[in-house]
Amino acid sequence: MMKDLATLARLDAMAQADLCARGEVSPAELFDACLARIDALNPLLRAVVSVRRERRRAAKSGSLSGVPFLVKDVAPWPGLRWSMGSRLFANNVAEQHTPYGTRLAESGLVCVGKTATSEFGLLGSTETMLEGVTHNPWDLARSATGSSGGSAAAVAAGLVPIAHANDGGGSIRIPASACGLFGFKPSRGRTVPASFVSSDFGDMTSDHCICRSVRDSALFLSITEDFSNDHRVGFVRDPIARNLRIATWTRTIMGAEPMPAVRVAYDASVALLRDLGHHVDPIAPPSFDGAALGEAFFIVAGGAIAGVVDMIDRMRGEPVQRDELEPCTWVLVEACHAQSPDPLPLARAVFAEAVRVYDDATRNHDVVLTPTMATEPWPLGHLSPILGREELIARTARTVGYTPIQNIAGCPAMSVPLHFPDGGLPIGTHFAARRQADALLLGLAYQLEEARPWKNHWPPYSIPQL
Fold first, then answer.
1. Distance between CA 81 and CA 73 in Å, rounded?
2. How many CB atoms lie within 10 A of CB 233?
3. Helices 260-275 and 438-451, axial angle in degrees (round to 10)
4. Rounded CA gap, 444 and 239, in Å?
């Protein structure tokens, strides 16, 4: 049985769907095998926080019919607990789909459960006071990062071929890098709505997936794409056929340089791109006010959560209690309430200036290349939710120094798993393009996947390695 589990675990979502369509495996067999894989490894990894053991009939005509997948627990899925990683919502069960969830269900994907997230997806770690700690399958003492760490750990371990994730500052791309996977963040407005409410923080957040193959990501995007978008991309299937002008730098938003291991991986990526015929052009990094940008980011995030807390206070007629939210979440909420006048207009102005600086620096190039993270995946506890606000902001700024600007600007971006050092952890390379240029970025990803195939790199704590 374990050999069969490993055989299926090595297949991406499209390959599993193809087996189903040809009748070589049934949806029930895919579902049961997925549950067996979760039961085998999830007690160790703690990537999956809710499991649906009763199979629901999949849409027969969907392009991914019968394929098991997982949904990050910041998003609702009818009949499953929807905690958002918070004790405040520990008993909350979703009743209906968002438009995004409806598209996924219509594709034939079969939801087998929910994956771990930081509380409300706020922190770049996946360790909460509700669910505990999610471990990186490459090294159990290391974080799977976050906030989509549960989805990344589950895919890296071979529990599912694909998992929903979302990204408000790097939460798809950073866990993908840490776990040796492909992580793509679509342009703002590319997909149908994935939430019932709106906020400044929600507007910066893109929903998509974490997976092993570029084609799975491209198909997932075509399934969830907003058909009213004037720049539709559909299902991107082929590598890019032209050479690109690529701007590159290594300095983080806060002005720091990456760790030596990250620099080695970055240099190898530059060499690869030049070998492929692209023009890689080192430029002066955008001159951001890093401190102001970091402060504005946490104001926007805190404002979104403050709105949730105020809504719950009104709905149930009593205030949210101290033990219902994590310490760092309370600090963000209270900081937002304490500021007068409303701090959001100032945060928006800081964002607008950062976007202007970014656009000015990159307007003559097709693509931007940087590391995904400035450091290797950090030890568990490094971004613990019990740390103080200032320490969390400082540590986040050090580790998450490249990815937030694409959320602020609404650009597509991706982390590509190009580097698997012997005895070390995977290191992703980060690429971004101008707004709505999702197809160009996916075309580059296909080319890189052909040049440096990564599908056979499996962590020690994965189904194929058992």
1. 8
2. 22
3. 100
4. 6
Backbone angles phi, psi at 90, to 5 degrees: -60, -30
d(CA 311, CA 199): 13
In whole angstroms, give the CA distance from residue 77 to residue 101. 7
**Helix count (H) and strand count (E) of the chain?**
15, 15
Among 292, 432, 413, 437, CA closest to 353? 292
* Positions marked active-site: 72, 147, 171
Contact between 110 and 40 (Cβ < 8 Å): no
In angstroms, the CA 76 to CA 74 distance is: 7
The structure tokens 């760790």 sit at 259
Query: How far apart (Å, rounded) are the C-alpha atoms in residues 149 and 47?
Result: 7
pLDDT digits 0-9 by tens, 89-147: 999 999 999 999 999 999 999 999 999 999 999 999 999 999 999 999 999 999 999 99
**Separation between Cα atoms, residue 391 and residue 404, nearest integer Å:** 18
Instruction: Name the phi and psi angles at 115, rounded to 5.
Output: -105, 155
DSSP H stretches of helix in 53-159: 99-106, 149-156
Report yes or no: 272 and 418 within 8 Å, Cβ to Cβ.
yes
* Separation of alpha carbons 97 and 328, rounded Å: 30
Nearest Cα neighbor of 369 from 289, 277, 278, 275 is 278
Element (H, E) at 396: helix 389-399
Q: Which of 217, 184, 180 has the alpha carbon at shortest distance from 464?
A: 180
Q: What is the pLDDT of residues 424-459, one digit of tens each?
A: 899 999 999 999 999 999 999 999 999 999 999 999
What is the spatial distance between Cα 437 and Cα 312, in angstroms, rounded to a whole number?
39
Residues forming beta bridges with residue 245, ordered by sequence position: 279
